[in-house]
Design brief:
Pfam families: BPL_C, BPL_LplA_LipB. The protein is of the alpha+beta class. It has two domains: 15-201, Bira Bifunctional Protein, Domain 2 (BirA Bifunctional Protein, domain 2, 2-Layer Sandwich); 209-250, Roll (SH3 type barrels), CATH 2.30.30.100. It is built from five helices and twelve strands. Helix 2 (83-98) packs antiparallel against helix 4 (169-188).
């Protein structure tokens, strides 16, 4: 995977390609702890042996079939309380990239899983390093299922399984990086409200009643997210409650 033709301003300049590694996020974090890493640096691997998802979950990925990479960004303009804005921008960048190949059944499942119908196509793990009240740098771990032909879990799928086509990772990765750079630059330009509205527009199960699980099962409707990125759900009594990650589960 050495023949990437990039059309970006800074994302992917440079790309560090590792034939195999435990976790691109761990590699990027260790690198940033030792030296100054240029914003936009991408750590890319063909085989990730210990990929991590949210809350320490394991990420399953066949070697040489999928996108497994991390991007180092320096959103020093974001306060700690605004860190979910970065999540919105990155999720939208990935969504916009995949939307070139899939129809409007493509959704973002709060906070940052990528779904097509009920099938998980990918996920994001953002790890922030804080300095004072601001984010010094962020490591954006991305796993996208592209050419994998089967999964241990029935809730996962890949672009190939959904479209019937095999894709060149060398062609797709530059498009992904370009799309992420575009939404990140919009975040830099403080287009937060527009980005948030777009995020809500493609949010899985937004504004319709479904079953959720918190302490108990209940019927509710997602009505938005608050300024901290918590999910706002209107319950059966019309009371709106804010949920952090892992405080609420989708039943499907």
């Amino acid at each position: 995977m050495h023949n990437l033709t990039l059309n970006t301003l800074f994302v992917g300049k440079p790309v560090i390609h590792l034939p195999t590694c435990h976790s691109t996020n761990t590699y990027a974090r260790n690198l940033a702890a030792k030296e100054r890493v240029v914003e936009g640096t991408v750590i890319l691997t063909s085989e990730q042996t210990a990929g991590r998802g949210q809350m320490g979950n394991r990420w399953e990925s066949e070697p040489y079939q999928n996108m497994t990479l991390s991007i180092v960004l320096c959103p020093t303009f974001l306060k700690i309380s605004e860190q979910f804005h970065l999540n919105i921008a990155i999720s939208l960048g990935i969504y916009n990239f995949l939307n070139q190949y899939l129809d409007d059944e493509l959704k973002i499942k709060w906070p940052n899983d990528i779904l097509y119908k009920h099938y998980k196509l990918g996920g994001i793990l953002i790890e922030n390093v804080i300095k004072g009240q601001y984010i010094e740098h962020a490591i954006i771990g991305i796993g996208l299922n592209i050419n994998q032909g089967g999964f241990q879990t029935p809730k996962a799928s890949s672009l190939k399984l959904l479209t019937g086509q095999h894709y060149s990772l060398e062609e797709l990765i530059p498009k992904l990086l370009k799309s992420i750079e575009e939404t990140y630059l919009r975040l830099r330009q403080y287009q937060v409200n527009d980005l948030k509205n777009e995020y809500l527009g493609c949010l899985f199960r937004c504004n319709k009643k479904y079953t959720f699980k918190s302490d108990v099962l209940f019927e509710g409707k997602i009505v938005g997210i608050d300024e901290y990125g918590r999910l706002l759900v209107e319950g059966e009594t019309q009371e709106v409650k804010a949920y952090n990650f892992k405080e609420i589960a989708f039943i499907y």
